[in-house]
Write a structure and sequence with these properties.
Blueprint (H helix, E strand, L loop, with lengths): L1 H46 L8 H10 L9 E6 L1 E2 L3 H8 L4 E2 L24 E2 L2 E4 L9 E2 L4 H13 L3 E2 L3 E2 L6 E10 L9 H7 E10 H11 L6 E7 L7 E4 L10 E5 L8 E7 L4
Parallel strand pairs: 3-6
Antiparallel strand pairs: 1-5, 1-10, 2-4, 7-9, 8-9, 9-10, 11-12, 11-14, 13-14
Bound molecules: (2R)-2-methyl-4-(7H-purin-6-ylamino)butan-1-ol.
Length: 281
Amino acid sequence: TNEKIILKRRETLENMCEERARVLQDQFNVSLNHVHALSILVSTFHHGKTPSAIDQKTFGEYTERTNFERPLTSGVAYALKVPHSKREQFEKEHGWAIKKMETEDQTLVQDCVPENFDPAPIQDEYAPVIFAQETVSHIVSVDMMSGEEDRENILRARASGKGVLTSPFKLLKSNHLGVVLTFAVYDTNLPPDATDEQRVEATIGYLGASYDMPSLVEKLLHQLASKQTIVVDVYDTTNASGLIKMYGSEIGDISEEHISSLDFGDPSRKHEMHCRFKHKL
Ligand code: WA2
């Protein structure tokens, strides 16, 4: 009967949506664990050894060769915590000035490359990127604390000691919405039961990964069959009064939708996958 067909169709939608949500969530979780491990690698071999065993070349090669461990990421980078009192010394040592992150609504598009960024204005502290995977080499020397979303992430990461996610925003040199995942790197004297203040004090840097949502979700869904059958949207639903679409399209049969929850590992952010059939019954 017609009713049976409708029920069957609903069940198919639920199953396909759940499967896609679980695959996306698992892949995200895998890369989160590897970004976490990378923060420990930097702690051990950059800060934990004199002289450091990591420079830009080593970091670039290692992160490129282990890219397969971080599905969905478009690149990883490492920024140092630099208080204003150490800025001059830092810039002299590195041979470049800490730059301010500028977005395209503040500048001409053609100026929106870090080589053309202005020096960072005076702040209490900075988070200049010192190492970057080739794919995000354009953020080297940029003060990540001068970007609103990056800054918020850095503050939350170092106080919590956990991996934290930004809300979706337009990444530098990308036309898509993405999110950034950040882990703080601490000096080794940090007690395991440290307070937020002790954590902030012991922070020496920030290891971050960027996720270009549209291209990466697209790649993932391509690997699953029946892309012709259903349409998938991914939302940041943290703010119930204004869902942010991170991935998706305008097409499909909106008369029936299935919602699968997504857990990307940061309890202060909420995400959902919304699925519908491409064609009406
Ligand atoms: N990485 C890549 N593209 C970006 C970006 C970013 N942040 N922010 C805006 N566009 C080094 O949390 C520390 C990476 C930030 C880490």
